[in-house]
Design brief:
The structure is a single chain. Helices cover 36% and strands 26% of the residues. A hairpin with a 3-residue loop joins strand 11 and strand 12. It has a single domain, classed as Nucleoside Triphosphate Pyrophosphohydrolase (Alpha-Beta Complex), CATH 3.90.79. Strands 1, 2, 5, 6, 7, 8, 9 and 10 form an 8-stranded mixed β-sheet that branches. It has a two-stranded antiparallel sheet with strand order 3-4. By secondary structure, the protein is α+β, with helices and mostly antiparallel strands. It starts with a strand and ends with a helix. It binds adenosine-5-diphosphoribose and magnesium ion (MG). The site of adenosine-5-diphosphoribose (APR) has 18 residues, from strand 2, strand 7, strand 9 and helix 5.
Length: 221
């Protein structure tokens, strides 16, 4: 266990803590982008109500349900399928970074991260349900997205995806999982993250240009 992390037992023993559980659902796939670029794996993340990318899941009260039952319940609300989550799917637990949630709450938040591999057909079923029967669709959950694992021209693909904004430590959870499960080669991941950092500079210029646009169109009161 790396520093800052807690075992499931240590996490559950914390008296003034609340718990949030999120899961990375993924599958293998044979499909190819444009008929030539292997997709290799489908990894699901979601656009959250706060405009950040994160994994499906949410707050769980261990006094009322197990962490895994709570996560299954959250999945039913957010993606429309109560996928069973087991103890073996638990990867790690840690205190949420100080900036998340903001403003600070009167309790400490422990985030539990799970990873579950399912079939490609189940992934498709989850995607269909998330956009149709999930009660949180359009509310707390704004839509599932697949993580592009390939690299495309001019820093596109994984590098561009990693340059977006993520809730809490969700980006690290994704990167750790890619390494741990060998879904992307470490050297490719390193290259993608290096590209991502460059993209940030361009994004800032882009944002400034958009801001100028609104300045020009702002009507005087
Ligand atoms: N790392 C750290 N913190 C995270 C992560 C992560 N990867 N993912 C989510 N969180 C935090 C969120 O900031 C939130 O405070 O965990 C908490 C619960 O997760 P959510 O998925 O946002 O919770 P959910 O139960 O689905 O519903 C949203 O929580 O954010 C509040 O007020 C909001 O009532 C709303 C509810
Ligand atoms: Mg949630």
């Amino acid at each position: 266990m790396t520093s800052g992390q807690l075992s499931r037992e240590e996490a559950l023993a914390c008296s003034n803590c609340r718990h949030a559980c999120h899961v990375m659902l993924y599958s293998d796939t044979e499909t190819k982008l444009f008929g030539k670029i292997p997709i290799r794996h489908i990894i699901l993340m979601q656009m959250r109500f706060d405009g950040l990318l994160g994994f499906p899941g949410g707050l769980v009260n261990p006094q009322e349900e197990s962490l895994e039952e709570g996560l299954s319940r959250e999945l039913l609300e957010e993606v429309g399928v109560a996928l069973p989550i087991s103890l073996e799917d638990h990867v790690d637990a840690c205190f949420a970074p100080a900036s998340s949630p903001s403003p600070p709450l009167p309790f400490r938040l422990i985030t539990h991260f799970y990873v579950k591999k399912i079939d490609e057909e189940q992934i498709r079923e989850v995607e269909r349900a998330a956009a149709s029967t999930a009660t949180d669709h359009g509310l707390e959950a704004l839509g599932l997205v697949r993580v592009p694992l390939y690299s495309w021209k001019r820093g596109g693909g994984l590098a561009m995806f990693l340059s977006h904004s993520f809730i809490g430590n969700a980006r690290s959870q994704l990167v750790n999982s890619l390494l741990r499960l060998n879904l992307v080669a470490p050297k490719d991941l390193h290259k993608a993250l290096t590209e991502s950092l460059k993209t940030h500079t361009h994004s800032a210029d882009d944002l400034k240009a958009a801001l100028t646009l609104t300045e020009a169109n702002r009507k005087p009161f």
